[in-house]
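Q: Could you write out the predicted structure for this multi-component system? I'm mainly interested in how the pieces pack against one another.
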Amino acid sequence: MNQPASAYFIEDRHDPNETHTLSVLVQNEPGVLARVIGLFSGRGYNIESLTVSETESQKHLSRITIVTTGTPMVIEQIKHQLDRMIPVYRVVDMTLTRRSIERELAMVKVRGQGEHRVEALRLADAFRARVIDATTESFVFEITGNTDKINQFIDLMRPIGLVEVSRTGVAAIGRGPEGM
Amino acid sequence: MTEKSHDPNQMTGAAMIVRALIDHGVTDIFGYPGGAVLPIYDEIFQQSEVQHILVRHEQGAGHAAEGYARSTGKPGVVLVTSGPGATNMVTPLTDALMDSIPLVCITGQVPTHLIGNDAFQECDTVGITRPCTKHNWLVRDVNDLAKVLHEAFYVATSGRPGPVLVDVPKDVQFATGTYHPPRKSDVHVSYAPRVKGDATQIRKAVALLANAKRPVIYSGGGVINSGPEASKLLRELVEVTGFPITSTLMGLGAYPASGKNWLGMLGMHGTYEANMTMHDCDVMLCVGARFDDRITGRVDAFSPGSKKIHIDIDPSSINKNIRVDIPIIGDCGNILGDILQVFKAEARKPDIKQWWQQIAQWRARNSLFYKKNNDIILPQHAIQRLFELTRGKDTYITTEVGQHQMWAAQFFGFEEPHRWMTSGGLGTMGYGLPAAVGVQVAHPDSLVIDIAGDASVQMTIQEMSTAVQYELPIKIFILNNQYMGMVRQWQQLLHGNRLSHSYSEALPDFVKLAEAYGCVGIQALKPADLDGAIKEMIAVKRPVIFDCRVAALENCFPMIPSGKAHNEMLLPEQANDEATATAFAGGKALV
């Protein structure tokens, strides 16, 4: 390893990256999202997707779903770093439990005429996407599914006349009767 | 109005703050007034239970509170105003976060209706300090204030200690609300630090320790933070097992430097024997340390053949830098107690005579060697004399950051915990002088010495004025080599001897400076003057600035060079003078 002149030890890490979905239950108080995001930016972690909403308003609980990538050591760090924040109740690695369902919703705007419109509707039907807005030259489709399915749908719409996409990010929940 | 006076818990926000301080046993706070905290200062004026120490710069208040906290085990409390008052606290808050020092910082804020308006002396204090506090709060309702203040004290002092900040807008300070004394429900239910270690893990750890052939104990600042009991248990564990022990910079004093199992500090400027023992050990017990990059050297070559046990109260310290085999989450005092109990019941002292023989060979390399000099004071010698002449006295040492800090760690022997205050994680130049102020406030009759460098000390020198005002007889022992020594050392070793901006061209006359502040200036130029001057410094019952003129070119060894492992240390005899000397071809004379 070629070591440049530095007061720090610079090392190459070659562990492969993994993608994990984390569910984080937090106290819904001012600044809590900033804390979580600040942790990721401050420590150089990745956010692939982030979904936040209050889930139990009586108890002021919000659920944050984060899709992140990193080496196994980094993923472990992220979970510990999240868990030690004062307003964080629980961190569950949905990927490790292998028993989770992940869903995302996207609204996809497509513009086109003639054959393209027919093709768009045919594909939407195959993906069980719904038409939620239509003009003589456009559709807005609503599609729900896991990230891969939505990516696939968007890729198919591109040659037909994709205008824009709005996505919610991933929400995840565990299978079976137990809560997190 | 008359109704209000019947309920003693009805009071203004400002009064609540002072009341909460009293309820948490705070006797001294450090601060600086300003527009947004005037109501609190008005309350402080009208009481006598909490003494307020007026600093000269908010950063000084922060470091003083750190010194106070580190030397007492109690939280340090800071009170500063909004805007610049708060931003000046960023350095001490970050410093305290890195070194796990409990601080409670109360900042004033502009009135709530002006927040977000770019008002005079407004800044987003909770936004700015979010990454440099363990937690922080903006209090918008006076009726939340008591709960937040109590929670702040709890969060700062429990689990892994750290700094917290409570931002209180001026209208909340004026508003009247209901105060309540501290109670359990004041704390977030989501915050529950773990204290007790897992019994199965402890058993596994003991089994490993009992069968070790080449063990080492590597302890850190967590042992100090856990309280004096943890240090006692650590000493007992060393006694019962007969294991060698080394420590990080932050952990010095937990095990006495005079103890027979002591290897000295480890890491970049640690001793050869400590680093070699770490490298070659088969079982490592890490207690309250975090495998920091100054400790590990090259991580892929760090202690390659050992099983590692890691005791830490913070789960995020586990497997952060180094993979360990047996993590135990909890308070190190608590866990050390459990380990001792199991060890005594089920194990015998392992026979590690051969290991000790090996260690003796490493020790014989005498890695802290330096050539004595009769003409010039060597910095190592100065610290050794300071140590010898203060031996047996009730002494507290603080430091700034740089070569002098490393020499202090190498040559000043600490016998007890809480006696050594240094900025380890953040490496804050300018920490030591205000920290000494804080230590002296907590221990008015003790001998408090800041071992300083000529560059560092100038970063917060204004706090000499605080020391004079409060008659705090701190001693600022400056190893004056006219360089930012550690910067220069790195430039010599790594940047082709190009000494870019590391020479102090226009140093003040420290003796005159001392006199200007109204304290005592002492200078030592020659080795022969040293003892007398140090004795004079100790005898003076006033603040002292001691200008100890030391060899300008001396460098700090031994050293793990960049990108190297523990067993590739550069020892003093290998660090040749020629390379060093050519750097000074410009003719800057010694001393």
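A: Regarding packing and overall arrangement: Residues 579-591 of chain B have pLDDT under 50 and may be disordered.
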